[in-house]
Amino acid sequence: PYYNPPSQQFSQQMPMSMPSSTPSQTPQYGIPMPMSMPASAPLPSHQFNTPMPSQQFNTPMPMPMPMPASAPQSMPYSMHQQQQSNLYHTPQQFGHVQPAYPPVSHVSAAATNPCFTPPTSVVTPSKNLSSKTDSGKRPTVKPKSNFNATEDCEKLKKAMKGFGCDEKSITSILSSRSNSQRVMIAATYKSLFGKELVKELKGELSGNYEDLVVALMTPLPEYLATELNKAMKGGGTEEAVLIEILCPADELELQDIKEAYQNKFGRSLEEAIKKETSGSFCSILISILQCNRSKNEMATDEQAKQAAEQLYKAGEAKWGTEESTFIRFFANESYAGIRKTDEHYMKKTGHSLEKAIKKEFSGSLRKALKAILLVAHNKHSYFAHRIFKSVKGMGTKEKQLMRIIVTRCEIDLGNIKEQFRSKTGKPLEDTIS
User: Polar residues composition bias: which ranges (predicted)?
Assistant: First the structure.
């Protein structure tokens, strides 16, 4: 109803310029013209019978906001993209890594402020040992929808009240919440009742069930750091535990574990490993902790062929073994590069790198190299094999079984179960029940 169509007089040609001596004029359509226009000025839009947008709807044109003289120019897109990524992924240096579980303060903001909107670029929980849901990975535990920490706390309090303990209720709650949600439950419990939930649970439970519940309630990086410390504590070192935790870990997981270890035990994980291990086994663990594994998943045949040749010359082709060549390759090469190199090693020698490792190495270094090779081919198969080893023979290695299930249930335990069934012909649930 407010639209005023342009009149025919709009089609009159406007002059390209006006002499400076000409006084200000008001054209017939009511817009005052400047005293002068440079000859190079573009043609007014009215010359083409196009009304100004503000006149077409009788709405005043918005005035541009002035920019301060010191305003920075817009950055290139690549720099902007890098800056955005740094919001949630700090520089990957020791001691400066985003925690693998969301701080409670973030949760409080979301819960108490109706205007709080979490960043859409961040998956909850964050870059996490407990929430890597990449394509193809099948976790068996996912964050509970409609999660209510207060309600869970009240149920847990009730389950521990009176004589005895309702373990069924505790299991039902803790086994269906993600690690980050359990951390929130612990913080909420302390706020509601003034007590540490983990201490309360430990007072009511015992044995392997107590250990399992405590593991579930502990932030995963801290749990793994504690497991590493236990493996190096006392007489002798459980080197198999160091291999199981560190050799399959990716860069972000390693950074989280290192920071958690430093915070909990007051010294660096690297320092502890140097003190508790020695020789080439120590060297490969320290190399892994540098987090320098290549991210190049497009290794060429020529590169793999050269790597296979170098490994052959450092091992089977000579008397003695250049262990440093194998350590450098397996600690730093991408998994795709390791797989392709294994193919070319097979073509060259007629057997796999695994056979070469068995022939040239012994002890814990051999186990570490074999673990990395198997992880490069199929990480799910590696953990299925570790579970099989924990339940094979007389007795069950409960700690090992528990550690794998707790740490992989939010990542790829569904895939591991499939590999276990393929290997043994039995479901994992039936094997451990």
Answer: 118-133
